[in-house]
């Protein structure tokens, strides 16, 4: 049996548009990039409010539920990922420069790896 989309009231152009929009996120996914910035937390960003060093503030905020972040110039990226090694490296580099490799999507980086920055 042959399906006639026009008899169903679904124009072929609309169907093509719907399928194209559904597939767009897969094609729009970014490639992995390396970002060079300072490790912080998403709540404080570039300006730490707590007493003590930026590293102490970052660690305290993360312990209280904030995510790690990377400050690159004026931009603050929230760092997302569950890789235990990457999270340990972010903790070690809190308040310091780091190179974060991952895929950016708006203001979030899906972290693949972390290393000391320059």
Secondary structure elements and pairings:
Layout: H1 12-28, E1 33-41, H2 54-63, E2 68-72, E3 75-80, H3 84-92, E4 97-105, E5 108-116
Parallel strand pairs: 3-5
Antiparallel strand pairs: 1-2, 1-4, 2-3, 4-5
State the CATH class.
Answer: Mainly Beta
Quickly count the helices.
Answer: 3
Shape annotation:
elongated
Distance from N terminus to C terminus (CA atoms, Å) equals: 65 Å
Strand order of the largest sheet: 1-2-3-5-4
Overall average pLDDT: 83
Give the topology string: H per helix, E per strand.
Answer: HEHEEHEE
Which second-level CATH architecture applies?
A: Beta Barrel
Which class best fits the helix and strand makeup?
A: alpha+beta
Low-confidence stretches: 12-28
Helix coverage percent of residues?
25-40%
User: What is the gyration radius calculated from CA atoms?
Assistant: 21 Å
What portion of residues belong to β-strands? 25-35%
Can you describe what's shown?
This protein has 118 residues and is an alpha+beta fold. The protein has a single domain (33-116), classed as OB fold (Dihydrolipoamide Acetyltransferase, E2P), CATH 2.40.50. Helix content is 31%, strand content 32%. It has helices at 12-28, 54-63, 84-92; strands at residues 33-41, 68-72, 75-80, 97-105, 108-116. The chain has a five-stranded mixed beta barrel. The longest helix is centred in the first third of the chain and has 17 residues, at 12-28. The chain is elongated. The N and C termini lie far apart (65 Å).
């Amino acid at each position: 049996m042959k399906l006639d989309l026009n008899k169903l009231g679904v124009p072929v152009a609309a169907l093509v548009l719907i399928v194209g929009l559904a597939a767009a996120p897969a094609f729009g996914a970014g490639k992995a990039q390396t970002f060079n910035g300072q490790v912080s937390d998403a709540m404080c960003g570039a300006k730490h409010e707590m007493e003590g060093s930026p590293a102490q503030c970052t660690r305290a905020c993360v312990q209280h539920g904030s995510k790690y972040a990377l400050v690159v110039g004026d931009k603050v990226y929230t760092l997302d990922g569950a890789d235990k090694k990457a999270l340990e490296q972010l903790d070690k580099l809190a308040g310091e420069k780091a190179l974060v490799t991952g895929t950016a999507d708006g203001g979030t980086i899906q972290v693949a790896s972390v290393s000391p920055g320059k």
